[in-house]
Design a protein that fits this description.
five-stranded antiparallel beta sheet; alpha+beta; Pnp Oxidase, Chain A; 3 helices; 2 domains
Length: 127
């Protein structure tokens, strides 16, 4: 088996991967082990925004330490292509009501677009 070095991607490639996705995993600093949870996200070109409930382990760990790793991936079903990016940083809760409204609308758009695709596919299948 030949060992192949994977070339480093540039920021434009990472941004393209991030823009096309909507599900990620966030690793929080847990008690003894990291705690990993899936999240929906939207990307505004500069920042990632995550959709979360206001309860659960993830919120508990976020409150203890906002430092986290985020993983976003894209792959073919047959795994002939697999691309991912891992980002490290810290999470901040959004408090500004106008910013929250803008972000909420982005999530509504994301969910509606996804629902429309599923709805269309189901209608096609039924008719």
């Amino acid at each position: 088996m030949e060992i192949i070095r994977i070339p480093r991607a540039d920021k434009a490639e990472y941004d393209k991967l991030i823009e096309r996705g909507y599900v990620c995993r966030i690793a929080f600093q847990g008690e003894k082990y990291p705690y990993i949870a899936p999240f929906l996200y939207v990307f505004d070109g500069s920042f990632l925004y995550f959709l979360s409930t206001k309860y659960g382990k993830k919120i508990e760990y976020f409150r203890k330490s906002p430092y986290a790793s985020v993983e976003i991936e894209k792959y073919n079903k047959d795994l002939s292509s697999y691309t991912f990016v891992t980002l490290q940083g810290y999470l901040e809760e959004v408090h500004d009501s106008i910013e929250k409204k803008i972000i909420r609308e982005k999530f509504v758009d994301l969910i509606c677009a996804f629902y429309c695709i599923i709805s269309y596919t189901i209608r096609q299948y039924l008719w």
